[in-house]
Amino acid sequence: MHKDWTDEIKYKDLKKLQEKELKNLVKEYEDICIYGDKKISKTNIVKCNIWLKDKTPINQKAYRESTENREIIKREIDKMLKEEIIQESCSPWSSPVVIVNKKTGDKRFCIDFRKINQMTITDAYPLPRIDDLLEKFRVAKWFTTIDLASGYWQIEMKEEDKEKTAFICSQGLYEFNVMPFGLKNAPAIFQRTMNKIFKEYLDKFMNVYIDDIIIYSKNWNEHLQHIKTVLEELRKANMMLKLKKCEWAKKNVEYLGHIVGTDGKD
Q1: pLDDT tens digits, one per residue of 56-113
Q2: Which of 59, 77, 102, 184 gives the lowest tally of CB atoms within 10 Å of its CB?
Q3: Backbone angle region of 207, left / alpha / beta, with phi > 0 → left and psi within -120 to 50 → alpha
Q4: What is the pLDDT of residue 29?
Q5: Percent of the chain beyond pLDDT 70?
């Protein structure tokens, strides 16, 4: 056990007894909490497939890489290989790696899946309307938001579809063992998975928008029970949360770019 792992449980303005009750509850679910260098697991609920209009492989060339970007790509690939997110590939498919500049000035490793996405048959599963979600929180007094650890990567690719996720760069050709970011149907697949896991509780005391979970309750004891219920369902589904990104038992939280709560704007 990581001796300081509970330090990553983020909360504030709780009474001493409430702090103790919350920590004791979360400690019961250490097995699904990601902290330190702990690895994520894969859900037992679903695997990702890619339905194509045309199964003729698309083979693209690697984009040109600057010296700086080449180092970023190598670092990311080494990390993903170590974590078994990707594996070396002999696929006839290939999509190029692209390094995206973020507003913060950081750089992000991405795969340009645009061509394979154009060939993909759309999964029409709906995402929730954000305004409908926000309306449900108005009578609540306590809120917890749960961030799933690299949510998409907790869904495995179907074996026969791994080759379609292959990407090319100066380091070689690789393919994903898990559902990568950037696939056309990834949001729909993930939303369907979440709705399946939590179908008994949606709109009652919790909601999910892709990988953003919110729990809302009218009183403290109710909130503890609701948190326990959600964590229990995540455990059954073999899904894990990123402990330091969760916000526990707050009167106001940010959710989907909005402040919700007793003093919130929504």
Answers
A1: 999 999 999 999 999 999 999 999 999 999 999 999 999 999 999 877 778 899 999 9
A2: 102
A3: beta
A4: 94
A5: 97
The domain that holds 216 is classified in CATH as 3.10.10.10
184 domain residue, yes or no: yes
Cα 257 to Cα 49, 104, 190, distances in angstroms: 30, 17, 20
Residue partners of 216: CB distance under 8 A and separation at least 6: 136, 137, 140, 142, 143, 205, 206, 226, 260
Task: Give the whole-angstrom CA distance, residue 39 versus residue 179.
Answer: 16
In a domain, 208, yes or no: yes
Do the Cβ atoms of 264 and 252 come closer than 8 Å?
A: yes
Q: Output the pTM of the full model.
A: 0.89
Mean pLDDT across the chain, nearest whole number? 91
Q: How far is CA 217 from CA 57, 124, 143, 220, 241, in A?
A: 50, 31, 7, 7, 20
Split into its structural domains, the chain has a count of 1
Residue 264 in this model has a pLDDT that exceeds 60? no
Here the tokens at position 249 are 């038992």
Q: Specify the residue for token string 């974590």.
A: 83
**Chain mean position to CA 67:** 30
CB 154 within 8 A of CB 42: yes
Range of the domain at 116: 5-261
